[in-house]
Give the backbone structure.
Amino acid sequence: MPLPTPLPSLLHESRLVPVVVAAGAEQGRGVAGALIDGGLPVAELTFRTEGALEALAAAVSAYPDALIGAGTVTTPAQVDAAADVGARFIVSPGLSSTVVQRAIERGLPIAPGVATASEVMAALDQGLTELKLFPTEAIGGLPALAALAAPFPQVRFIPTGGITAASAPAYLAHPSVLAVGGSWMVSPSHIAKHDWDAIASATATAVAATTKELV
């Protein structure tokens, strides 16, 4: 069986993964452009709406140099759909061996969701060491992350779920955290209103806070 493809270096460098809920081509292009204008050429467009695939396809087509992936991927068919429109990575809310296997077969990096030590071990069995921790705040937040990280020093986590602009820096300071996933810079209300300037501004603030944390 082929080995998993590592997550792209740009995700490691950006340390932020905007979790986007968009529907249709216009919203996909608009939010991706706003994130780029704010200094963050990374987006996880989730399969949470009927028009999610159209949004993903439009974002990838409009911004081929950006790191645009598919999120909330729960079936192998969704992996194929995302791959077919050019998604650069896959994020799943949980750990499914069939989803992981299909992503590996398609040559796509995947960060499956884990919430327990048993799930981390199952992911390691599949050769994965870059994992989404979800839902982070609901399962105990930073103390839970630290507890999971202790026996698995080889794992890098992407905590997602309930994280805010205020709490993100503390997560980013933890050595086992690769990046933080969140939606505070891509407000659904701003997406619905096509308020791309507001998203770009919130993104620039998030990028500046991350840069400050790294310094």
Remarks:
- The beta strands are 16-20, 42-46, 67-71, 90-91, 110-111, 113-114, 130-133, 156-159, 180-182.
- The longest helix spans residues 196-214.
- The mean pLDDT is 96.
